Amino acid sequence: MRGPRVQGFEGSRVGARRAVPLLYQALIIILIGSLLGISSNLIRRVRIPFISHKTDFIKEEKKGNIITLTEAKERFDNGTGFFVDARSGEEFLKGHILNAYSLPEEVFAERIDEVKITFPDSEEFAIIVYCGGEECDASAKLAEQLRQSGYTNVRVFFGGWNEWVRAGYPVEGTPS
Amino acid sequence: MKRLLENPLTLFVLRLSLGIMFVYASWDKILHPAQFAQAVYNYTILPVPLVNLFALILPWIELLSGLCLILGIYIRGNALVITFLLFTFVAAAGISIYRNLDITCGCFDTAGGRKVGARLIIEDSSLLLISLWVLVKGKGVRDKRM
Predict the structure, then answer these.
(1) Which residue of B has its CA nearest to A53?
(2) Any residues with CB less than 8 A from the CB of A168 and at least 6 apart, and which?
(3) How many CB pairs under 8 A join A and B?
(4) Of B120, B82, B83, residue with least CA distance to B104
(5) Which of A23, A88, B21, B36 is the most buried (most CB within 10 A)?
(6) What are the Cα distances from residue A96, in Å, to A2, A140, B12?
(7) What is the pTM of this model?
(8) What is the Cα–Cα distance from B22 to A33, expressed in whole angstroms?
(9) Do B111 and B36 touch, CB atoms closer than 8 A?
(10) Is A48 in contact with B55 (Cβ distance < 8 A)?
(11) A39 and A115: one domain?
């Protein structure tokens, strides 16, 4: 009688022993791999920053489409830029660049006619699209849609709302 | 069929091919981290600040687990890692197809390379089946008792 019971006990023990090392094995590999990845970037000649920014990934030929905070402010001051807010309507209501126009990226298709009446395509006046900041991509997506519908002078202000507020430039609403 | 699949030699060959595939896939990405980061960015799945870190670490994990599979170290643990990776690759490709993204996969070749499409999903899924099989049936140094 005892024999089988002991055997059963043995069996489950072995089972438990197998399950734990399996996860450990995987974690060890992931850990060593991560350390190798990080250290290789520290010692090699061509390094990349550990924290990436959106501007790292914009293709060279498209870099002319980016507008910096300084240039955005210049265009704001001399009135040669229309600011378009690509964030949600809710975020827009909480606060936005003074006189900006709310055009959430996902409703662009529905509002294309209204957009065409509001903004003429012109060399002198740039459409400056922005969203929350570096981490959002609504501005880039909206800019692409605007270009596809015929606008030629569309610029993306990647610093977005965050950078504008930090600089203390004119806004409507309360910056959070 | 089942006997053939459970044959130690079959398992060995499957394990070896999977390992070689992963070592091969990791190489170009390790050499060109910036290009691979670009490919990862294009999927627009990961938050932008994490893209570089992911692109730096992932190929080394691929290399390491591929090598271990070839050498027979921690076979099931590595099969688990690879299964998990392949599962995320298939998911990422699926999401990109659903979102209609026209991007290159960044799988083997960071410069240009193949497009994300149905073929990629089929290939990755086949690899996923192999790695699952190795995970279930493979024996590691630690598992000699079995």
Answers:
(1) B49
(2) none
(3) 106
(4) B120
(5) B36
(6) 77, 18, 61
(7) 0.65
(8) 13
(9) no
(10) yes
(11) no
d(CA A157, CA A83) in angstroms, rounded, equals: 9
Q: How far apart are CA A82 and CA A129, in angstroms?
A: 8
pLDDT tens per residue across all 146 residues of chain B: 777 877 888 889 999 999 999 999 999 999 999 889 988 988 889 998 999 999 999 999 999 999 999 999 889 999 999 999 999 999 999 998 888 777 788 888 776 567 788 889 999 999 999 999 999 887 644 444 43
For residue A107, the domain's CATH number is 3.40.250.10
Of the candidates A29, A33, A135, which has its C-beta nearest B74's C-beta?
A29
Count of residues in chain A: 176
Which of A24, A42, A52 is the best residue to mutate to test the B interface, defined by the most B CB atoms within 10 Å of its own CB? A52
User: B52 is written with which tokens?
Assistant: 């570089």
Residue A132's domain spans which residues?
54-173
Number of H helices, E strands in chain B: 6, 0
Residue B4 token pair:
């053939």
Note whether A135 contacts B47, CB cutoff 8 Å. Answer: yes
- Helix crossing, B118-137 with B8-31: angle to 10°? 130
Claim to verify: residue A71 and residue A146 sit in the same structural domain: yes
B74 to chain A, minimum CA–CA distance in Å? 6
User: Quick one: A17 and A96 in the same domain?
Assistant: no
